[in-house]
């Protein structure tokens, strides 16, 4: 039996795993005791990775060879790789010739390894000359990115997991850590056991298992986080709990913000949030009086039409109290996907360039063009996730290349997404599994290698880079994602000689791509020029930055009080509370929120194939408060029509003490095959995202998946 060290592909905690294999079969998985993210622990999802990999349905569902269809009326048929790659290159080049490079859109994934991400980014922005490349990480952490840059000057979470054990107060906002980041939550529980004086505050509309474990739960009304944080800052000011020395020496903009939060008295803020005033005051005191306060936050802040403002308002609290750059203190955004961070590092979003450079900065564009050896990087902003599918639905984007993600389930407002997939002239889907809803729209299906079959790196929530290693070869003729991208890129180079005077993709291994990527980081905030594959082999996973000469990574940032802004100071963000995009009203009187279950992952393409992972929750439902169940005359299991302005689905209702009156919760995982219904234009529904809105944050462009106004009607059975 062989043992291969790698990483769990499910979430941003980034746990190390040891894969056991015999020949070409994976036979077991256990936690890597030496990996600093998990020290050998795995949650229910990670510990069953080998079972999902071996599940008969998983094998049956694997894409083993390229498939192509000659017309939309015919089913796809197997073709050779050469035919598929030539077809892709020829049709992409045709679209570019006829409509220009911005008629092509790439929608990629936080599942990809950093090396995959790098190649796709260079292919789109460098070779094709379009910035239309975005990722499903847009749905997960783009608000955190925008707020870090706005306040601290760089997209870099300053804290680390070890800070959980050094904090005196942990403030969890918009994160059901117990379900979404279970191994990190084990640390929080451990820290509480070791230090009963540790205060845990959870701000969440639902009384989740995370909130249940808190010393103080703040059941805010959906979307009111900015009011909460401003109200807390008001208390900190009034009660003299500011770190005035830190504010004076290391920040700018406090006086402007002070004037703004004067209006957010505890009474006003508590009323906006639907809280008791004394709870808000208590939270502020614990935050400000603590020797070290660590904030952990996730989609509850990010997936919002004011996501950037929410993130920034929370960071304001840390700057005002000097709770940053010290052990146990700091704002710490948690990433949902295993490699959302790696994608950010290579600039894998429509508005970013390699190594945290900005597309809007002409110097950055020129730098990247020089590093890549292309004439230029175009200045036209690329379309972000929601915008890309809207542009395709309007007919502006003609070709979509979708990699390792399932927008026909995971994007909000499925009506528009499915119109886009139908209208696009060319849909390329690069996938491991043939069964995702998006595959049904593909003109070309390219079989991709997946977990345990690929080599490269990922970066977890705490900036820690870990090697991902192949334990077994991919089945059939499936190929690694970077390899497929390079194979098509080389064919496109021949058709676009003006943009590729020499080959831009000379890679023969992920390591060659990594070496080029780390060179682009030289002198940047995330400089990893010292971090070679050999060093990762020798030292194990490391946190960036790690510039030339460094012998180890850096646990936490800004310990010297200097921030990567032009004047070295962090900036307070003067933001205002803005209500949710679609407030509930008489016609749609219930606030719907979405989220994860403990044992399922994304659209269930992996976890949905393993019976034991349904032991926790076996079927989809809408959770309603007991009061709303009674008001509507519902009993557990009664079917209800759930309707928003965009679509309608049918689900059983379930009374739940976790949900407040006039609110509802539906897990995000269940798709077409589990949830019947339809979008507003009559297509089959795609789970809860038939209902959700594509309203998004004006800064981060992250959609408000956490809130939609709905109505519920008891289904009449014949
Ligand atoms: Fe995998 Fe996340 Fe669970 Fe760790 S916590 S085992 S990374 S799903």
From TrEMBL:
This is Molybdopterin-dependent oxidoreductase. Residues 1-57 form the 4Fe-4S Mo/W bis-MGD-type domain. Belongs to the prokaryotic molybdopterin-containing oxidoreductase family. NasA/NapA/NarB subfamily. The lineage of its organism: Bacteria, Pseudomonadati, Pseudomonadota, Betaproteobacteria, Burkholderiales. The chain holds residues 1 to 718 of 933 of the full protein. Its cofactor is [4Fe-4S] cluster; Mo-bis(molybdopterin guanine dinucleotide). Keywords: 4Fe-4S, Iron, Iron-sulfur, Metal-binding, Molybdenum, Nitrate assimilation, Oxidoreductase.
């Amino acid at each position: 039996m062989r043992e291969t060290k790698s990483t769990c592909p499910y979430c941003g905690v980034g746990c190390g795993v040891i894969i056991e294999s015999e020949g070409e079969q994976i036979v077991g998985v256990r936690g890597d005791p030496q990996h600093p993210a998990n020290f050998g622990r795995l949650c229910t999802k990670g510990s069953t990775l080998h079972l999902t990999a071996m599940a008969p349905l998983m094998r049956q569902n694997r894409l083993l060879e390229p498939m192509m269809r000659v017309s939309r009326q015919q089913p796809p048929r197997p073709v050779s790789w050469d035919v598929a790659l030539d077809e892709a290159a020829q049709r992409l080049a045709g679209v570019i010739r006829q409509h220009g490079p911005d008629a092509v859109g790439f929608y990629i994934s936080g599942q990809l390894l950093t090396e995959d991400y790098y190649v796709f980014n260079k292919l789109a922005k460098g070779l094709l000359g379009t910035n239309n490349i975005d990722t499903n990480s847009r749905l997960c952490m783009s608000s955190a990115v925008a707020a870090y840059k706005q306040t601290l000057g760089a997209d870099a979470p300053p804290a680390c997991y070890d800070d959980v054990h050094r904090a005196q107060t942990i403030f969890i906002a918009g994160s059901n850590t117990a379900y979404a980041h279970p191994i990190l939550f084990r640390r929080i529980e451990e820290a509480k056991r070791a230090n009963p004086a540790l205060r845990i505050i959870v701000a969440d509309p639902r009384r989740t298992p995370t909130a249940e474990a808190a010393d103080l739960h703040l059941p805010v009304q959906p979307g009111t986080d900015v009011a909460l944080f401003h109200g807390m800052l008001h208390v900190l000011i009034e009660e003299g709990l500011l770190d005035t020395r830190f504010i004076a020496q290391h920040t700018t903009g406090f006086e402007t913000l002070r004037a703004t939060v004067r209006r957010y008295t505890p009474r006003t803020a508590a009323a906006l949030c639907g809280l008791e005033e004394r709870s808000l005051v208590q939270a502020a005191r614990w935050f400000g009086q603590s020797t070290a306060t660590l904030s952990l936050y996730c989609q509850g802040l990010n997936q919002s039409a004011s996501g950037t403002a929410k993130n920034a308002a929370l960071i304001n609290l840390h700057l005002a109290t000097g709770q940053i750059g010290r052990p146990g203190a700091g704002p710490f955004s948690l990433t949902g996907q295993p490699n959302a961070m790696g994608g950010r590092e290579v600039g894998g979003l429509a508005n970013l360039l390699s190594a945290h450079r900005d597309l809007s900065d002409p110097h950055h564009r020129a730098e990247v063009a020089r590093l890549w050896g292309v004439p230029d990087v175009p200045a036209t902003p690329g379309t972000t996730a929601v915008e890309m599918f809207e542009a395709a639905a309007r007919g502006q984007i003609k070709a979509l290349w979708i990699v390792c993600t399932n927008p026909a389930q995971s994007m909000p407002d499925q009506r528009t997404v499915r119109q886009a997939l139908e209208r696009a002239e060319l849909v390329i889907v690069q996938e491991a599994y043939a069964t995702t809803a998006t595959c049904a729209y593909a003109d070309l299906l390219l079989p991709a290698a997946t977990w345990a079959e690929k080599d490269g790196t990922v970066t977890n929530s705490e900036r820690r880079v870990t090697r991902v290693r192949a334990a077994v070869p991919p089945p059939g003729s499936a190929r690694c994602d970077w390899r497929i991208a390079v194979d098509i890129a080389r064919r496109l180079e021949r058709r676009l000689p003006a943009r590729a005077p020499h080959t831009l993709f000379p890679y023969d291994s992920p390591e060659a791509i990594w070496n080029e990527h780390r060179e682009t980081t030289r002198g940047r905030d995330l400089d990893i020029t010292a971090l070679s594959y050999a060093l990762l082999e020798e030292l194990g996973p490391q946190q960036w930055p790690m510039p030339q000469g460094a012998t180890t990574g850096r646990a936490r940032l800004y310990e010297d009080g200097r921030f990567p802004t032009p004047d070295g100071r962090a900036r307070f963000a003067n933001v205002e509370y803005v209500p949710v995009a679609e407030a509930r009203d008489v016609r749609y009187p219930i606030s719907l929120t979405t989220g994860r279950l403990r044992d399922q992952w994304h659209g269930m393409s992996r976890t949905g194939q393993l019976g034991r992972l349904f032991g926790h929750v076996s079927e989809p439902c809408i959770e309603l408060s007991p009061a709303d169940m009674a008001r509507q005359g519902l009993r557990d299991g009664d079917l209800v029509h759930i309707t928003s302005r965009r679509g309608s689905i049918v689900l059983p209702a379930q009374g739940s003490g976790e949900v407040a009156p006039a609110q509802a919760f539906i897990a995000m995982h269940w798709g077409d095959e589990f949830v019947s219904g339809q979008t507003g234009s009559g297509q089959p529904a795609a789970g809860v995202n038939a209902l959700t809105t594509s309203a998004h944050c004006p800064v981060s462009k992250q959609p408000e998946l956490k809130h939609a106004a709905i109505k519920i009607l008891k289904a009449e059975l014949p």
